[in-house]
Amino acid sequence: MKSFAVLALIALVASCRLDTFFGGSGGGAPPVAGPPADLRFTDQPQTTRARKTLPPVRVAVRDDQGNVVARFGGVVALTIDSDTGGVSLGDTTTVAAVNGIATFRHLRIDKPGAGYRLVASAPGTALAPVKSQAFAILAPLTGNITVTTTTQGADTPGGYTVTVDDTISQSIGINAVVTFIGVAAGSHVVTLAGVTPSCSVDGTNPETVDVSGGETAQASFAISCAAPPPATGDVVVTTATSGSSVPSGYAMSLDGGPATPIGVNDSVTVTGIAPGDHTVAIGGVPANCNVASSNPQTVTVAAGNTARAAFTISCVLATGSLTVTTTTTGSNLPAGYTVTLENGQSGTIGINDSVTATGIAAGDHTVTLGGVPGNCTVASPNPLAVTVPAGATAQASFTISCGP
């Protein structure tokens, strides 16, 4: 009896294995899904803190037998259930299904609350929307950000403005500390504004800080300021000279300061002049020349601009005087002499006499004493070289000795 039972059991097991092999159950190709029939959340949204990305949420497209329709590659969209108060959902809420499953990896809700539900739909299809399980959004973890400013140098501003994430701002002094309280945990951008052109931040601006729940992050700004260069202007001085006996040049001065040479027909630029009224004068003008324009002149200098002072000078022939003196000793003296310039101008003079000729052109001349008899000798050079200054008198003296 036992042997018969064992044989019967072996036969039964073999029969089951053959049925499995020929019947295809327990392993073969997966069933072919039918047309899409519904949507289903395969990975439900999980409780997460506000402003944080939810764990991936997945929605499958199934047929009427519950099989995933792998050939479906259409778009699946998520919205937040309007029953939860109209809170908005971000960031990527529409994705294309892959092998029949749409995966949402970048979902975020900014406001905390309980009983949130997501609604999945397949736009452009007849599939009915489906709601997820309820989930909660917790209040975000918060911390603080303390901002410190340290300013040195001259021409410092009255203060700055510090802003976090381009949303919340506070005023801060040039050497001060302010704290932003209740800042959500995460990375934040701190920007210092109101830095004047004469100042620069010695580091990164804006600065990125990481805030941890219950902790205080630090952002520090070191600012260096320098006094801006004074705004100045220029003065251009020009001369225009005409006529005869023109001098070789003039001397120009600004506000009575040191003289600067300038030609008779010239232009000189003086730079770095403080804004305001200034006086410009031309010196070294000889007596035979006349400055037609005002001298000195007042000019007004504006920052970044050029003021101009123009001088017009006209000159006439410069003249002076020449005094000729004779001193004669001895015997057999003549009655007198003649005095002649190299230009032919002449006159008579006594033996012990002094005569003055006016209107002599300024410059170098030679004076010749004539009419000296043979018994007389001129001790001084004859002719005699003299220089006649403009507006002044030159002297020419002759000493004569006479014998029997």
Strand-helix topology:
Elements: H1 2-23, E1 38-43, E2 48-49, E3 57-62, E4 75-80, E5 90-91, E6 94-96, E7 101-104, E8 107-108, E9 113-116, E10 118-121, E11 130-131, E12 135-138, E13 142-153, E14 160-164, E15 168-172, E16 177-184, E17 186-193, E18 199-201, E19 207-211, E20 216-225, E21 233-243, E22 250-254, E23 260-262, E24 267-273, E25 276-283, E26 289-291, E27 297-301, E28 306-315, E29 319-330, E30 337-341, E31 346-349, E32 353-361, E33 363-370, E34 376-378, E35 384-388, E36 393-402
Parallel strand pairs: 2-12, 13-20, 21-28, 29-36
Antiparallel strand pairs: 1-3, 3-7, 4-6, 4-10, 5-8, 9-12, 10-11, 13-16, 14-15, 14-17, 17-19, 18-20, 21-24, 22-23, 22-25, 25-27, 26-28, 29-32, 30-31, 30-33, 33-35, 34-36
Structure keywords:
Immunoglobulin-like; single chain; 4 domains; rod-shaped; 4-stranded mixed β-sheet; 404 residues; disordered N terminus
